[in-house]
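User: Fold this; tokens only.

Assistant: Input:
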Amino acid sequence: MSNELGFYIELIEGFLEGSIPAATFERRYLDHFQADQTRRDEELFDVLDGLFAAVDAYCGDDELRPHVKGAIDESELRLRAGRALGVLRGSG
């Protein structure tokens, strides 16, 4: 596993396994991605950026979500995180 991707892989794994709650995953992913200055090839950047967009679209409030354009629920976030994890693991 590439050290530069290790944080992302471990974070996503923890979220998918249930040891990291969605709200914690959301905060950690957004914070790390925004601070990450690592230069990556276009494919990896697109995967991480795509997951950033999904995390940003996540809304954990069931009552608020229908009123937020483009908002996704936890199950959709898990689906997208799982897809991203597959690509990240394959690049390590």
